[in-house]
Design brief:
alpha+beta; ph1033 like fold; five-stranded mixed beta sheet; three-stranded antiparallel beta sheet; 12 strands
Amino acid sequence: MAVYIYVVARDFGFAPNPFHGVCSLATCKPVVRRMAKVDDWVFGMGGTKLGAVGRCIFAMQVTETLSFDEYWAAPRFKDKKPVRNGSRTMMLGDNIYHQSEAAWHQLDSHHSRPDGSPDLHNVKTDTGTDRVLISERFFYFGKEAPEVPNTVLQEIGYKNIRGHRVYMNDQCQGLLDWLMATQSSNLNRVVDDPYQFHQSAARYSVSDDKILD
């Protein structure tokens, strides 16, 4: 079992999407989505832009992996398809990709252009790995992200840097023990709103690395 840890630069509730009883990672982080296997853990730590360095925004144990087309076609994930004139939760749906005639189609979503048309840079990045991570064993804290003890972070040599790092289970046992010992009552819960939930109508462009209103 491996543990993937990365810094969450933006927290809208889109990547990951913790709503409707399942935590999904369907966009961004193409390398993590390609490499992570069932039973592996993915941790998202707060970044400087969120003012949450050293805090755990989410942790999900992968319980299933799907292709984009499988995710799109599954009735149980229909509520994960975005409705841009719906509630904040519905606006941020991450079930946005499917293929036909070898072409990718992107729903009007957080990763589309401001006019709702596909953002080709986001399409290229997201679909670079045709894989969605599903978790039915997750913790999502959002704005209530708990601080991970320094001793735990120092034990694994954690630093607030770009990209992701991969550890074997025994290297991160202290982190997993802390999560289970202190947060077990929050299993499969959205403890609080995402840090940027109030900007749910915004779009993000990877080419500009900008949030577009």
